[in-house]
Amino acid sequence: MARRLVIASQKGGVGKTTVALNLAVALAERGSRTLLVDLDPQGAVGLSLAKADTELPGLAELLMGQATPEEAVLVTRLAGLSLLPRGRLDATDVPSFEEEVSRPGVLAETLESAEAACDIVIMDTPSGLGRVTTAALTAAEFAVLAFQTESLALRSIGQGLRVLEHIQTAGNPRLQLLGILPTLVERERPGTHAVLSEMWNGFPDTLETVIPRTEAFAHASTLGVPVGFLGGGAGAPEARRFELLADELEARMNRL
Amino acid sequence: MARRLVIASQKGGVGKTTVALNLAVALAERGSRTLLVDLDPQGAVGLSLAKADTELPGLAELLMGQATPEEAVLVTRLAGLSLLPRGRLDATDVPSFEEEVSRPGVLAETLESAEAACDIVIMDTPSGLGRVTTAALTAAEFAVLAFQTESLALRSIGQGLRVLEHIQTAGNPRLQLLGILPTLVERERPGTHAVLSEMWNGFPDTLETVIPRTEAFAHASTLGVPVGFLGGGAGAPEARRFELLADELEARMNRL
Ligand SMILES: Nc1ncnc2c1ncn2[C@@H]1O[C@H](COP(=O)(O)OP(=O)(O)OP(=O)(O)O)[C@@H](O)[C@H]1O
Ligand SMILES: Nc1ncnc2c1ncn2[C@@H]1O[C@H](COP(=O)(O)OP(=O)(O)OP(=O)(O)O)[C@@H](O)[C@H]1O
Ligand SMILES: [Mg+2]
Ligand SMILES: [Mg+2]
Questions:
Q1: B241 vs B76, B218, B235, CA distance in Å?
Q2: Number of H helices, E strands in chain A
Q3: Over residues A155-167, mean pLDDT
C-alpha cells in the first residue's frame, strides 16, 4: 500500500495546491512513484502537467463508478508522477461531490484502486476542516498542515492539532502529523521572524524548510505549472527548496 | 426585512473576509444599520471590532438554540455596525456546524431573528461553493463574487455564475448577482490589465471598483481590524476605496 500524505489548511489561499504540486514533482524526480490526487471540488491541480482539462474523467467519475482507475489516473509528462484530477464536476454538484467523498470508507476504497503501482500519494484538499478534508485525513497516514506565516496563524495552529487528535481517536489511529509548514514567508516583512520563532519554539513539529513568497511561485501558479517547469531556469531556487522539503519529509516519515 | 448580501468565492484566500469587514464598515459609516455575519467555520471576522474572542456566543449558539439573538449579536465600537460572530465552535465540530447551517430553512430563520433592527446584512462565507455557501446564497437577496485578478480566475467565473443560476432556479428566485469584484489587483504585474479588461468586456457585471493588493490591507488583516482603523491614517486611501465600493453596490441594489 502506498504511503498517503494529506496537505491541509484551515485558511484558504495559503499555498496548499502550490505545495502539493511541487512536492509531488520533487518526490517523483527523486524516484518515488507518486500519485497526486485533487480532492478540492474547485480543483485544477497540475492539469497543465497532463495536458488535461477539467473535462477528463477523474475522482468524481471514479467515486460514481463511471470510470475505471486506468481511465481516471493520468500519466504526466514527468516520469514517476501520475495525477488523479478532480474529474468532470458541474459547479452546482459540489455539495453532492462532498457528500460522496465523505461517505465512510468510500475514499479509502477509491484510493486503494488508484494507488496500485505507487509508493506515495499526495492529496490536495479544499481549505477548512470540513467533511472532505476530514475524510482525507481519515484515509491517510500523514498530514502536513500549512499556515501562512502571520501572527493570526499562531492562533489557529492549536485548533488544527486538535482536529488531528480527534481524527486519530475517532477513526484513524495511524494518522500522524508529519509537519507544520510555514508558507508565504516574507522575511523582509516586520514581525515575520517573531512569528517563525514562535512556531519553531511553540510547535516542535514545525518544519525547518519554509516556503517563501516569491514571484516565481506566483507566476508558475498562474500558468498552473510546477515552479521547476518555468522557462530559463527562473524557478530553479524554488524547485530546490522543494527538494529540501522532500528530504525533510522523507526523513520524518522514516522516523515516525 | 434587511437586504442580505453574500460575499463568496470559489478559491480561498482571495480577500472575502477583508471585503466583508471593510464593506460593512463603509456601509455603517454612511448610515446603514449593518449586521456583519460570520458563516465561515474558520471564521474570526472583525472580532477586534467588538473586542470579542471566539469564546463569545454567536451563530453556532443561535443555531443550536443555546443563545438568544440579543446574546449572540454584538454591538461594535462603530455606531451602526453590529456583528454576529461564528461563536464557540471546537474545530472538531466543523462538519456538524456545516450540517446545521445548511439544513433547509434554518439559516433564513436564524437571520430573521438576528437582523431585526438592520437595513443590511453582510455574510462572509468559507471559500468554495459547498453547502454552507449554498445555504447562504439560498437565504440571500444579493451576491458579490470575489476573484483574485489573475488569468486562472477567468476560467472559473463562468462556473460561479452557473451556481448562482442554479440556486435561483432551485430555491431562491430573488437571488441576484450584485457584482463580480476583482481583488488583489497588482497593476504593475504584467498581464493584470489584460485580465481586468477581459473581466470588464466578458462579464458585464464586473464592478468598476477593484480592490488593490496593498500593504495597508495586509497589515490591517494581520491585526484583524478594518483598514480605516490603522493608526496615523495609514489606511485612508483603502478606506476611501471601500466608500466607492459601497456607492457602487448601493446604486446597483437600487437599480436591480
Ligand atoms: N510561495 C508562493 N509565493 C508566491 N505566491 C504564492 C506562493 N504560494 C502560493 N502563492 C499564490 O497564492 C495564491 C494561492 O495559492 P494556492 O492556490 O496554492 O493556495 P491554496 O491554499 O491551495 O488555495 P485554496 O484555499 O483556494 O485551495 C495563488 O495565487 C498563488 O499564486
Ligand atoms: N487587498 C489586499 N491587499 C493585500 N493583502 C490582502 C488584501 N486582501 C486580503 N489580503 C491578504 O490575503 C490573505 C487572505 O485574505 P482574506 O482572509 O480576506 O481572504 P479570504 O478569501 O477571506 O480567505 P479564506 O478563503 O481563508 O476565507 C490575508 O493574509 C490578507 O492579509
Ligand atoms: Mg488549493
Ligand atoms: Mg475568509
A1: 22, 15, 10
A2: 10, 7
A3: 94
Among residues B188, B235, B183, B192, the alpha carbon closest in space to that of B211 is found at B183
- What are the backbone dihedrals phi and psi of residue B35, each rounded to the nearest 5 degrees, phi first? -115, 125
* CA-based nearest distance A190→chain B, Å: 10
pLDDT at B71: 94
Taking only the tens place, the pLDDT of each residue in A89-106 is: 888 889 999 999 999 999
Share of chain B above pLDDT 70, in %: 97
Q: Residues A69, A116: contact at Cβ < 8 Å?
A: yes
- From the list B88, B43, B92, B81, the residue with the least C-alpha distance to B63 is B88
**What does the CA dihedral B224, B230, B231, B232 come to, rounded to 10 degrees?**
170
In the block, residue with C-alpha cell 499562531: A154
A166 touching chain B per CB within 8 A: yes
pLDDT per residue as tens digits for the range B172-201 = 999 999 999 999 999 998 889 999 999 999
Mark B167-197 as b/e (b = at least 16 C-beta within 10 Å).
bbeeebeebbbbbbbbbbbeeebeebeebbe
Please state, for a pLDDT cut of 90, what percent of chain B lies above it: 82
Q: Which residues pair with B6 in a beta bridge?
A: B123, B143
- SS3 state of residue B168: helix
Residue A41 CA, chain-centre distance (Å), reads: 14
3-class secondary-structure state, position A203: coil
What pLDDT was estimated at residue B56?
Answer: 83
* C-beta atoms of A130 and B129 within 8 A: no
Query: What letter does residue A65 receive in the DSSP assignment?
Result: T
**Residues 6+ positions from B201 with CB-CB distance below 8 Å:** none
Residue nearest to atom 23 of ligand 1 (CA): A13
